[in-house]
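Extended Data, panel c. Modelled sequence:
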Amino acid sequence: MNIFIIIAIGVLAAAIAVAITVIAQRRMAHTRAKTIIADAEREAEDLKRQKQLEGREEALKITAEADKQVNQRMNKVQQIEARQKQRELQLNQQQSENARTRNELDSTRQALDNQMAAIEARQAEVDKMHRNALEQLEHISGLSQQEAKNKLIESLKDEAKTAAASYINDIMDEAKMTANKEAKRIVVQSIQRVATETAIENSVTVFHIDSDEIKGRIIGREGRNIRALEAATGIEIIVDDTPEAIVLSGFDPVRREIARLALHQLVADGRIHPARIEEVVAKVRKQVEEEIIETGKRTAIDLGIHGLHPDLIRMVGKMKYRSSYGQNLLQHSRETANLCAIMASELGLNPKKARRAGLLHDIGKVPDEEPELPHALLGMKLAEKYKEKPEICNAIGAHHDEVEQTTLLAPIVQVCDAISGARPGARREIVEAYIKRLNDLEQLALSYPGVIKTYAIQAGRELRVIVGADKIDDVETEKLSSEIAKRIQDEMTYPGQVKITVIRETRSVAFAK
């Protein structure tokens, strides 16, 4: 029993100790909480005070910035007001000056009016004095005014006759001094009026063969050889019943010559197929180009002309393959050059310059490009481009009266061209229009993307257009032919109809090694 009481007391004592500990801890926690709350309140108060200080500083900065902007605007307003005041002062000064000027003008006008009145009064006095003087002269001389006038006219007639005779003598002396030059001009103009006229134009070449069996080989299976040849040269090849002959038709003589030489090599070799045709045509084209340059050099040497630009030499060589109304253009130019040299020698001018101008006078007929210019003006521009002398350029440009003739060399070239070429104007215009129409056909089709080559054949009744297989497909090919036909109808004038043939080929090349 006592043991239980002791245990109970011990437990109670322990519980009391625990309670006391808990109460102590609670008091400590409460004290710590109060301390933390006090610290937090102090920190919050410090933070609040700091934020208030920062806010005041920011407000001061904003106020200072606003004051600065206000001051700047006030300064600008003051400057504007100052400028306006200055302008007002200037306007007031100008108004004052204008007022003074008006006053001065009024004063000047008044003074002029007074002077005019004085002058009119003085003029009236002078007229009165003149009448009085005439009356006194008539009284003193015993002659009337009309009689005195007649005597004065007679004396003036005698003086005029003497002066006219002297003037005529001066003119005769001057005419004697310039008679040589005037005689040259008259001789040149007289020769111009007696030039003969005859002309024929060629646009076909006949290729002779040994037997008609070769015609079949030239045509090839299903016509592939002749199509390849026409596509490579741009020349229409006519194989008909004419015995031992094939006709090459085309407006470009260089193309005809390439086709003729290529046919000659193909027939002589015996191997005629599309690949071989293209190879031979490329080779012949290079040979013809070399022959053109050689012909130009040989012509310049034969005529004793030195210092020609290489491009001019090449154009002179191209004349060999150009026919000018039944006359080879190179032969016509050589003949004109020799005639110019002879006539210049007879007239006492420089024969070398005349020969040079005569050779180059038709150089505008064989350019690489065909601009919209007459051949005389084009030739003059080419000569200027290649640094020919001004008198040579003028002679080239004036030989068809398309520019003014500034030297005696120009009419000499014109006369010798007429004597050698003798081309009638109407026929010349018709043929030039024909050549221009064919060139325009080719250039029109060549302006479309994907077109590689164009050839106008059958005197312009057919236009063959070769396109790249990798650039245009079959559907676009049909569309292209329709577009070209419509554009030709809208933009060009031509007789009959024009057939547009668009050719598209796919080629694959490989080499076995």
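Residues 2-141 form the longest helix (140 residues). This feature is highlighted in the accompanying rendering.
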